[in-house]
């Protein structure tokens, strides 16, 4: 007599099967960038085995702060590695804000820490940064599973929230306001966390990410990435049941060939549609340029004096982290520093409203 599989085990198997198909397009782009950055057959083989386009050394000793690492999740079948950087000076009585930084496909936490200059920016700006790491058992190309069935997406979000809760409990010094930001699939996942746990986050952001809640199947995910699908605002409003969403930051290159810029506009439209009624929304626009770096078109939407959505369109940039480290896949050193731009937005949000509970 056969035994019936538990819902958790069934969801994990579905995650792996669907991940192979969903990751194909981004994985091909990762392979192309990996070949450009490398050159040796052995290095390329190592990347293929690890599913990391341009591996980086594990973060080591850093002046002015310390890296911690561990594993946590929802049990033996849903464990994830994580890395945490805490600058010096943090105390449990005055805990630092915590930024959850979610890598993209074909990356891991070490590569993403290198790409984003996470430790340097966190130390300079006074926040802690947590980098969960997707495992190949959950997605062969290390993409966060931002789309699919309720069980599939629910498992991913619950796993990430479990890691956040564990880290905050283990390190009370990082129990301040909570933020989430991610690249590509990580960006879509960051917004998915906010849609499912809006009360937990002070603000969230997506860099070059697909519009959240815009796909259930691999085919639909590909369509969404090309800008041919939009989120179902009515279904999301029903799930939110009146809970307000945290402020949203979107950063996206206008020449992105992997995830169309239309996704940033769709995500902004979703957030604006779900704003509570009664307070008029005012839109402003401007242009940012820092030295010889790429210029950025900025659009802000405010409810009264409070920022609700900021959209940064980086001119001439493809599917890459703006201002990222040289030599890393999905990294454009010629763009303005995305992590500093994001933290500027998050600081503004903290100044304008009381932080959300963690």
TrEMBL record:
GO terms, molecular function: hydrolase activity
SUPFAM superfamilies found in the cross-reference section: alpha/beta-Hydrolases
Annotated Gene Ontology cellular component terms: extracellular region
InterPro entries, alphabetized: AB_hydrolase_fold, Esterase_phb, Plant_Biomass_Hydrol_Est
The entry's keywords: Hydrolase, Signal
Protein name per the record: Esterase
Species: Zoogloea ramigera
Lineage: Bacteria, Pseudomonadati, Pseudomonadota, Betaproteobacteria, Rhodocyclales
């Amino acid at each position: 007599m056969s035994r019936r599989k538990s819902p958790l085990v069934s969801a994990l198997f579905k995650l792996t099967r669907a991940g192979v198909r969903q990751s194909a397009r981004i994985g091909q782009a990762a392979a192309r960038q990996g070949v450009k950055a490398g050159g040796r057959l052995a290095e390329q083989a190592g990347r293929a085995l690890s599913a990391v386009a341009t591996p980086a050394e594990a973060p080591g000793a850093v002046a002015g702060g310390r890296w911690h690492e561990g594993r946590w999740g929802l049990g033996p079948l849903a464990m994830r590695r994580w890395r945490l950087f805490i600058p010096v000076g943090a105390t449990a009585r005055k805990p630092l804000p915590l930024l959850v930084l979610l890598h993209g496909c074909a990356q891991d936490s070490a590569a993403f820490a290198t790409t984003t200059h996470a430790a340097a920016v966190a130390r300079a700006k006074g926040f802690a940064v947590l980098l969960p790491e997707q495992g190949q058992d959950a997605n062969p190309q290390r993409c966060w599973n931002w789309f699919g069935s309720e069980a599939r997406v629910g498992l991913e979000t619950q796993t990430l929230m479990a890691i956040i809760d564990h880290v905050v409990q283990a390190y009370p010094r990082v129990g301040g306001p909570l933020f989430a930001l991610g690249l590509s699939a990580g960006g879509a996942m960051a917004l998915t966390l906010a849609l499912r746990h809006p009360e937990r986050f002070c603000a969230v952001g997506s860099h070059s990410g697909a519009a959240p809640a815009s796909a259930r199947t691999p085919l639909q995910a590909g369509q969404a990435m090309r800008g041919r699908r939009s989120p179902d605002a009515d279904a999301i409003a029903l799930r939110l049941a009146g809970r307000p969403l945290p402020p949203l930051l979107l950063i996206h290159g206008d020449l992105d060939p992997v995830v169309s810029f239309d996704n940033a506009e769709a995500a902004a439209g979703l957030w604006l549609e779900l704003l509570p009624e009664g307070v008029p929304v005012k839109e402003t626009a401007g242009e940012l340029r820092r030295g010889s770096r790429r210029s950025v078109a900025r659009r802000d939407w405010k409810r009264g004096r409070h920022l609700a959505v900021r959209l940064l369109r980086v001119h001439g940039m493809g599917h890459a982290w703006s201002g990222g480290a040289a030599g890393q896949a999905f990294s454009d050193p010629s763009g303005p520093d995305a992590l500093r731009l994001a933290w500027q937005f998050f600081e503004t949000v903290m100044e304008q409203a009381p932080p959300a509970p963690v």
